[in-house]
């Protein structure tokens, strides 16, 4: 499958992970919109939040544990951050492989 995030997750495209566990990897966004802009993606090609809910609770918990680990290591846990999923055309989603944006490091504007 020709998916750039699958290639990053598998290591076919070289990237420096800022966090990882058995099910997810995290790396800096190539075109950051905030001082901290990290993407967290499932290692598998998951296309939607609905598909992700088919995974065990343990997997879903590990996602939020990883987010917590990343915001601590990036030093934005106390200052605040935003966790975003773009899904579907109205959201402006560009990459089909499900990904969670973590944004922080500056005052963020209103959503939308
Ligand atoms: P979205 O609009 O939610 O689909 O976001 C896709 C994000 O992926 C954008 O913020 C892009 O800057 C980012 N992106 C695309 N290709 C890469 C890449 N090779 N490495 C890191 N981030 C990427
Ligand atoms: Zn993929």
Helix content: 25-40%
CATH fold descriptor: HIT family, subunit A
What quaternary form is this?
single chain
CATH architecture: 2-Layer Sandwich
Kindly report the name of the CATH homologous superfamily. Answer: HIT-like
Could you describe the 3D structure shown?
The protein is an alpha+beta fold. It has a single domain, classed as 2-Layer Sandwich (HIT family, subunit A). The protein is built from 3 helices and 5 strands. The chain has helices at 4-10, 49-52, 57-73; strands spanning 17-20, 24-28, 36-42, 81-84, 100-104. It has a 5-stranded antiparallel β-sheet with strand order 1-2-3-5-4, covered by helices on one side. It is globular. It starts with a helix and ends in an 8-residue tail after the last strand. The model has no long low-confidence stretch (mean pLDDT 97). It binds adenosine monophosphate and zinc ion.
């Amino acid at each position: 499958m020709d998916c750039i995030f699958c290639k990053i997750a598998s290591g076919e495209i070289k990237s420096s992970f800022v966090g990882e566990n058995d099910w997810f990897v995290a790396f800096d966004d190539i075109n950051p919109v905030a001082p901290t802009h990290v993407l967290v993606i499932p290692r598998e090609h998951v296309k939607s939040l609905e598909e992700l809910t088919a995974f065990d609770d343990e997997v879903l918990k590990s996602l939020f544990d990883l987010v917590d680990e990343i915001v601590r290591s990036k030093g934005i846990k106390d200052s605040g951050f935003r966790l975003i999923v773009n899904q579907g055309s109205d959201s402006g989603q560009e990459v089909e492989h499900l990904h969670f944006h973590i944004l922080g490091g500056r005052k963020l504007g209103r959503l939308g």
